[in-house]
Amino acid sequence: MTGTTASHPFAQRLHGSPESRLLYADQATGAELLCIPEVEEQFEHYLAIEHGDSADRGMLTGALAGVGGVFLSGFSFAFYLDQRPEPALTCFLMALACSVLPFLWEVLRPMPLPILLNRRTRELYFEQDGELYHSPWDGIAAAAYSFGTVGPYTAGMRHAALEALLHRYGHPQEQVLINLGSPISKSLEMQLGFWEYLRTYMDKGPWFDAQGNHSESDAFIQSLLEVRKSKGQWARLHWGLLKKEYKANNGRNFLSYSDFALLLGGMLFSPFNTVQNFTYSIAKRRARSQWPTLVKERLRPDGPSNRLVDLERAEKQ
User: Fold this and answer.
1) Chain CA centroid to CA 31, Å
2) Does some domain include residue 174?
3) Are 200 and 33 in contact (CB under 8 A)?
4) Considering the domain boundaries, does residue 1 fall inside one?
């Protein structure tokens, strides 16, 4: 383990672990910049990292409305054309139920809020069970380490976690350890690369290039986030790959069975993906309004510049 200091909060916990690194906001790890899919949004003043099971939000509505609802609507239209109003109405009502009920359930059900890095005030926010946790970015306690898992149907697998230590607002003695993104199937080098990405965003951002140098353009960042924005758009993505292959072969493209199957599968699942993404966006927008006022006002460009830890200190005096 490199970078060990006795004062680091993780030093004793990771002592003797060969594949681990203690991390500091003001010290580079030497890893190459890497953005992970859990980065949900990146703006000038803050960055949001997806947390918990929020990634699955919208799947139920996508399956019931985007698949079942579409088929039932098709049957309803066919019955209507066949001048059979009763089964047409029955299928239509069933399609409506398959669309509206799961949509309302997924949108109205509480959704885990993301982990937020506030670049303007240089602090990190996290919400759990209605309680607000935070940490100043400068001096934050963080570490990356590898671990293995063995399942009944799989061989041993290696993963790596990137963790940070936060404390509850107004109660510094109550602390929580959070993962900055999912550790599943990630290597230690990947987590170190993501830590460098976060350091670069906080210190040289909001926009920067692949080498971590400040940039006035957000082109590089948007190219990284495009993977997430195109989530579920399989048909469009594969069609784009086919067009590139067509141009690379000077107008000749020999479709394989796999190309045809992927393109057709993407088209068939398009309603499912469209409904899922729409439901997710509505649920996310509703969840964002649930942040405490202390956080929401600091996310504004003209909001307070003092940190939550500064408020805690002022309240003690």
Assistant:
1) 21
2) yes
3) yes
4) no
Phi, psi of 6 (to 5 degrees): -65, -25
Whether the CB-CB separation of 181 and 159 falls below 8 Å is answered with no
CA nearest to 35, candidates 167, 173, 207, 159 = 207
Q: Which residue, 134, 77, 104, 79, is CA-closest to 309?
A: 134
pTM of the model: 0.79
- In eight-state DSSP terms, residue 214 is B
State the Cα–Cα distance between residues 146 and 20, nearest whole angstrom. Answer: 6
Mean pLDDT by 10 residues, the chain (317 residues): 62 78 93 90 93 82 88 90 92 93 91 94 94 95 86 72 95 93 90 96 93 91 73 54 66 62 64 84 86 93 93 86
Q: Name residue 238's amino acid.
A: H
Query: 222-245 burial, b for 16+ CB within 10 Å, e for fewer?
Result: eebbeeeeeebbbbeebeeebeee
Instruction: Say which DSSP state 10 is in.
Output: T
Please give the tally of structural domains in the chain: 1
Which structural domain, as residue segments, surrounds residue 36? 20-299
